[in-house]
Design brief:
Layout (H helix, E strand, L loop, with lengths): L4 E2 L5 E2 L5 H14 L21 H11 L2 H15 L12 H12 L4 H19 L2 H7 L6 E2 L21 E9 L3 H12 L4 E5 L13 H8 L7 E2 L5 E2 L22 H11 L8 H10 L3 E2 L7 H13 L3 E3 L1 E2 L4 E3 L19 H7 L3 E4 L1 E9 L2 E9 L9 E13 L2 H11 L18 E7 L12 E5 L7 E6 L3 H4 L7 H9 L4 E8 L4 E6 L5 E6 L2 H20 L4 E3 L13 H6 L41 E3 L14 H19 L1
Parallel strand pairs: 4-5, 4-15, 5-12, 15-23
Antiparallel strand pairs: 1-2, 3-11, 6-7, 8-10, 9-17, 13-14, 14-15, 16-19, 16-22, 17-18, 18-19, 20-21
Helix pairs in contact: 1-3, 1-4, 1-5, 2-5, 2-8, 3-5, 7-12, 7-18, 10-18, 11-16
The structure holds flavin-adenine dinucleotide and iron/sulfur cluster.
Length: about 650
């Protein structure tokens, strides 16, 4: 594992970590994960047979990581090796390594705490990826729907996904096949136009989704799922990269944007139609089979959150999802093995293809071709579904328009790479994320969150503050590393993961960030969490802890650096002096706003009809359009707006 290895194509590639860095990571994993019960031990610096080698498990993921992040990670590993200076971490005996890791987590230095946490997460991801670990814990992924299983998809439901030759022509080229692109393409194709959909990622379906969590991250996500908005704290913000976009791996929750938010879009951004999305919402909900989760069959995770809310007298309700009769499995982030979830590749895209659209997978648009101000097509690389490949040139000419739907990162990235300058100066700015965190609780009963619907129930008591709680079971791969303790204590808790319930908290943020192209040519995403938003997230953590205790939890795990558990008696203190922004461990799943709509070309990148200000025949139909944080999961709003953009375009082109 330490030298240069050969790939199937014969190319020789270096492993992402050096031998010394691998040694540090293995030494950390070995200290964290000794054998307990049926849990296998993690391999140490000299891997023994039967152990779980986290370095081996993580290698494909690290290879998919953005170069910039990998550089940071390698630096962190090198720094960690010397935290016990003048002694090297990997040469310490196991008890000393454990004492050192525990000490780091209590350190007064935020940098040291962050370093320890980074390695804990990385080692945890690699360790829990091993099938033996899930088996020891009893976690299984068994999918079920109430009633008969959805029929298997027809052979090649999207037709031929390979680009023909070096060049194709169409009326409209749609770049991106997610919530926005798939819907815009369908509307345009059904209006009789010749539509070509380009998707950088691969086509995968219920028979071909990778089973292991890390393989799914590499196969279905941009940057192997390690896309990060830099800042304090840094906010991991995964997005999908596959035919169907992020809808392939999302949780399927469907909310309409609250009327007050849409009202502000009209008054503050001149979007006259904002309050008139009823027809589009209805169509999308019908098409995606949106229905409330059944509280009886949703599983114990959601039921505990509901019981906690009831005990405290809070406003709560089952979530609506685009998964109809789904009742069990929790593998949404790896793709739905039953097609219960009506992601775009099993809903809108087949409809678009039936109306004549062509879908091309593994084709990344690299540059928009302009003829003066008019967008005339895109220059692409074809054959890049496997991102390690360079691909070949492929050109698309669009007779009518280019429609960008690469998502809140992909769309500004393509515009910036095409040297497009927005007259507003706002391109890539105004990034909103809905920063989120999760709070786990351990119960004296078997919760077995995997035996239920992954995201199932909402508490909207604090919607006026923009704080929404959604009962979301966090699979072992993502939650295991957060369990308190090191070594044997940590492993005991891991074995009892079936007793953990969890809820997500997300915030309608006022903080903002930016997408830009860095000096090394890579995409740079930054985000600055304002103090007010950090305090609101802490408020949400306190409320979630109360809900979990009210439901019977005996310990609660907040994702706050330096605070391993949040005892019931400490909640008031926690709120009275909330942690600083950088101590919050956040994630985000709803990037938006980077090509925001505004009727005023001086304030928005796009007009209310999706047209890019300052260009002709160039439109946007995705999450980048949203001019503010919406406070709820955005998928069906993006789909509804894309339908509107598509319809406007089709009418003008008629
Ligand atoms: C883990 C997770 C869970 C989520 N859960 C929910 C949920 O429950 N409910 C909800 O409402 N929302 C959820 N979301 C968010 C939701 O899925 C997204 O907001 C939505 O899919 C965004 O739609 P989009 O069309 O803007 O982009 P995407 O759906 O991300 O699609 C963009 C596509 O464009 C492709 N692309 C980008 N650039 C190029 C290029 N240059 N050339 C070719 N192709 C390109 C990408 O590969 C991608 O496939 C979740 C997100 C995540 C990550
Ligand atoms: S929980 Fe998600 S992956 Fe599992 S059946 Fe339901 S929709 Fe599909």
């Amino acid at each position: 594992m330490t030298g240069v290895t050969a790939t199937q194509t014969g190319a020789r590639v270096r492993p992402p970590l050096s031998a010394a860095e691998q040694r540090t990571l293995r030494a950390f994993a070995e200290a964290m994960a000794p054998a307990v019960g049926d849990l296998p031990p993690a391999a140490g610096p000299d891997p023994a047979p039967g152990t779980v080698d986290v370095v081996d498990a993580l290698e494909p993921l690290l290879a998919a990581m953005p170069r910039r992040s990998l550089r940071g990670l390698r630096l962190a590993l090198r720094g960690f090796e010397w935290v016990a200076f003048p002694r090297r971490f990997s040469r310490l005996d196991l008890p000393r390594r454990r004492t050192l890791i525990a000490g780091l987590e209590r350190s007064r230095s935020a940098a040291k705490r962050d370093l320890g946490l980074l390695l804990r997460l990385l080692a945890g991801l690699g360790y829990t990826n091993d099938r033996r670990v899930a088996e020891a814990v009893g976690q299984r992924s068994a999918c079920a729907v109430a009633g008969p299983e959805p029929a298997a998809p027809p052979e090649a439901p999207l037709g031929d996904l390979e680009p023909a030759g070096d060049e194709e022509e169409c009326d409209f080229v749609v770049v991106g096949s997610g919530a926005g692109g798939a819907v815009a393409a369908t509307v345009l194709a059904e209006a009789g136009h010749e539509v070509l959909v380009l998707e950088a990622g691969p086509y995968l379906d219920r028979d071909s989704y990778p089973e292991e969590p890390l393989a799914a991250m590499v196969g279905l996500y941009r940057d192997g799922g390690l896309t990060v908005a830099e800042g304090r704290p840094a906010v991991p913000t995964p997005v999908g990269r596959a035919v169907g976009g992020t809808t392939v791996i999302n949780s399927g929750t469907c909310f309409r944007t609250p009327a007050e938010v849409l009202g502000r879009w009209a008054s503050e951004h001149g979007i006259a139609w904002a309050g008139e999305l009823e027809r589009e919402y209805e169509e999308v909900e019908r098409m995606l089979d949106v229905a409330p989760v059944d509280p009886e069959t949703m599983g114990r995770n959601g039921q505990l959150i509901r019981e906690g809310a009831e005990a405290l007298g809070l406003s709560h309700a089952p979530l609506h999802r685009n998964a109809g009769r789904c009742s069990q499995c929790s593998s949404c982030p790896n793709g739905c093995r039953l097609d219960a979830k009506r992601a775009m590749h099993v809903s809108y895209l087949p409809r678009a293809v039936a109306a004549g659209a062509r879908v091309r997978a593994g084709v990344e648009a690299r540059r928009i071709n302009f003829d003066g101000e008019r967008a005339a097509g895109v220059d692409c690389r074809a054959g890049v579904a496997d991102r390690s490949r360079l691909g070949r040139p492929f050109r698309v000419r669009a007779r009518r328009a280019v429609v960008l739907a690469g998502g809140a990162f992909g769309t500004p990235e393509l515009l910036l790479r095409s040297s497009f300058v927005s007259p507003s100066g706002e391109l890539g700015r105004n990034l909103r994320l809905h920063p989120a965190t999760w709070v786990g609780g351990r119960f004296d009963e078997q919760v077995r969150g995997w035996d239920g619907v992954m995201q199932s129930y909402a508490i909207d008591e604090w919607k006026d503050r923009g704080v929404l709680l959604e009962a979301t079971f966090t699979p072992l791969a993502f939650g295991g590393a957060w369990l308190p303790g090191t070594g044997f204590e940590h492993q005991q808790r891991m074995l009892a993961y079936g007793e953990v319930a969890s809820t997500g908290i997300h915030l309608s943020d006022r903080s903002s960030g930016r997408v830009a192209i860095g000096g090394d040519g890579s995409l740079r995403i930054s985000y600055r969490l304002q103090r007010r938003d950090a305090e609101l997230i802490a408020f949400g953590i306190a409320r979630a802890a109360e809900v979990l205790y009210a439901a019977g939890a005996r310990e609660v795990y907040p994702q706050v650096s330096g605070l391993v558990t949040l005892p019931r008696g400490r909640i008031a203190d926690f709120e009275a002096s909330p942690p600083p922004a950088r101590a919050l461990r956040l994630e985000a799943f709803h990037p938006m706003g980077t090509a925001r709509m505004d009727a005023d070309p001086g304030r928005g990148v796009t007009a209310p009809d999706g047209a890019v200000h300052g260009a002709q025949s160039l439109y946007v139909a995705d999450a980048s359009l949203l001019p503010s944080s919406i406070g709820v999961n955005p998928m069906i709003t993006i789909a509804a707006i894309a339908a509107r953009v598509g319809r406007g375009l089709a009418e003008r082109a008629a």
